[in-house]
Sequence to fold (305 residues):
Amino acid sequence: MNAARVTLRACAKINWTLEVLGRRSDGYHEVRTILQTIDLADELALRSPDRSGAGRDTLRVAVPAGWDVPVGEGNLIEKARTLLAASHPSWRWAETLRVELQKCIPPAAGLGGGSSDAAAFLRGCECLRASTEAEALERLATRIGSDVPFFLRGGTQLASGRGEVLEALPNAPTTWLVLVTPPLSLGRKTERLYSLLEAEHFSDGSRTDAVAQALRQGRAPEPASLANTFEQVAGNAFPGLAGYRRSLTETCGFALLSGAGPALFSPVADRGAAEEAVAALTKQRVPAQIARTMTAAESTAYRLG
Fold:
């Protein structure tokens, strides 16, 4: 290894669009989605072990009270570590890396926190080793989860297939967002939301293509152009979601599900408008916060030492 410690940001994401086109022959669903990193982020610190502690207590997680975040094999960082170490003898040292994770992204919210953590771990290993094996890491990332390859790159990306086929788009113009994270949980959430979809819920991807074209022309996505297939079934999956959606819509004029939810977001004119909206929602006891879009360079930055 060429460095002893690296600190990275693991950014959350929203989906400007998420269209489900249909069911594939392999049992997965074909999607077309535009993913966007935002400045809500976990923080990951990776360091080489001391001589006495190799292989013991290698993942420490600090989480807010009440959050259910796995720290063993169920954590995607550990899945990334296992797959990376098994991929080639030269990566076996990843098994003994000490990882400290500070969670700020609510788990199972549709914001990609676990996938982003796994991607940050892979990027951190690449930084420590000073390697340039980006293609190999992307192939490995696909085995961890559909969103993990996106988080290796960050920024604004058009994804198809299961979400792992990526096309880089120009960074979206800086956009301020109001983010609402309802305290609603659902076991096996994404699987269950997909199971609720019927043929009439599927679309052709044209909404996504239109937003991608706007981004290529340097324009920020307009709220009216955004779409998420899961909007059609999320109300059935998350009792109580309608109240949070109503509060965000009445305050900001718009609300859209991120991923499979239950997080909701609304683009707003500027930071001042975001601050006013969050203050109003907080008075209503709605869990809201300000966020802004992040470029690829911002969301993949790291600090050595």
Summary: The domain at 176-292 is CATH 3.30.70.890 (Alpha-Beta Plaits). The longest helix spans residues 113-129. The longest strand covers residues 5-23. The two ends are 13 Å apart (CA to CA).
